[in-house]
Amino acid sequence: AAKAGGEPVRAYMPSMGQIFLRRFQLVTQFRHAVETGQVKVHYQPKVALPSRNVLGVEALVRWTHPEYGDLHPDEFVPAIEAAGLVGALTGFVMEQALTKVRKWLDKGLRISAAVNISVRSLAEQDFPEQVSDLLTRYGVPPELLTLELTESGVMADPQKALPVLRRLHALGVVLAVDDFGTGYSSLAYLRQLPVDEVKIDKSFVFGMGTDLSDLAVVRSIVELGHSLGLSVVAEGVEEDVARDQLSAMGCDVIQGYLISRPLSESRLEAWLQARTT
Ligand code: C2E
Ligand code: CA
Ligand code: CA
Ligand code: CA
Fold first, then answer.
1. 178 CA to middle of ligand 3, Å?
2. What pLDDT is attached to residue 204?
3. Staple 27 to which of 34, 64, 83, 236, CB 3.0 to 4.6 Å?
């Protein structure tokens, strides 16, 4: 059961059998769910510091399941990935996001979209061509598309990921390392990756107001990022204090509930309207 539009309600602990059945159902139902509009993309704004101008939005998938209610990606993306269906998910999210960017361009707004990319997509040899074809089809300049790759995903098999990252970078799309600080990257590795942006993991940002070691991690990522010429983004900004600390450190972009929660398409349009007029 779930509240309409709210967080899923966990009333009981499901058994292993129930968990397995549910994962199986989600995988088999996914394509149909996309085709029938159960799967939607929400968008969370990213704003520049200190101006607070809206630079872009991150596309975050949502699934309103007829039986299980509103599902967050953590509840179904891993199963979709394991089943080899992530290409369908990425393609859907990217087309939705590029449609929005194109519409904004037609209204004279330059707002970029960031799409989360599963490490499995980097294993597809033709992934860069798929991205390039979509940019052409939607008439979107590559610099208005950001691809967010998790640090752990890229580091799991850098030899495999690197050539694909180079080809994506050559297209001119923006490459971001997501969840930075949670994995094992050394400074040396980050230098070798053809990336443009680091996103500080929200676990450090949540703690930075109260925990000195979180604050130190955030500060060192901002400095490291800047010394490598990267744009630094902080996610999970919930409080004024965090925003002010990040601003003082010179962090370039922030994202989080303080600015806005992820919004449906129509609510995002209303939010943008209120912001820009
Ligand atoms: P992520 O890429 O790290 O996305 C940020 C997550 O943090 C989102 O959760 C967002 O709603 C949440 N968030 C943003 N600001 C705040 C804040 O201020 N406070 C708190 N507490 N949370 C905040 P969400 O939407 O549940 O997504 C979870 C993860 O699912 C994402 O983590 C991403 O790894 C994955 N994901 C989402 N959409 C897609 C997709 O289209 N494809 C793939 N492959 N993965 C996706
Ligand atoms: Ca992300
Ligand atoms: Ca993240
Ligand atoms: Ca994450």
1. 5
2. 95
3. 83
- Give the torsion sign (CA, 195, 97, 73, 43): positive
Ligand sitting nearest the alpha carbon of 236? 1
71 lines ligand 1 (CB under 6 A): no
pLDDT tens for 221-270 read 999 999 999 999 999 999 999 999 999 999 999 999 999 999 999 999 99
Could you give the count of Cα atoms lying within 13 Å of 173 in the half-sphere of its Cβ?
A: 30
Question: What letter does residue 230 receive in the DSSP assignment?
Answer: -
H/E run at residue 109: none
Query: Taking all residues of the chain, what is their mean pLDDT, rounded to a whole number?
Result: 92
Which pLDDT does position 2 carry in this prediction? 47
Q: Are 244 and 224 in contact (CB under 8 A)?
A: no
Is 181 near ligand 1, meaning CB less than 6 Å away?
no
Predicted complex ipTM: 0.97
CB contact set of 45 (below 8 Å; sequence gap of 6+)? 54, 56, 57, 255, 259, 260, 263, 268, 271, 272
For ligand 1, say whether the CB of 101 is within 6 Å of any of its atoms.
no
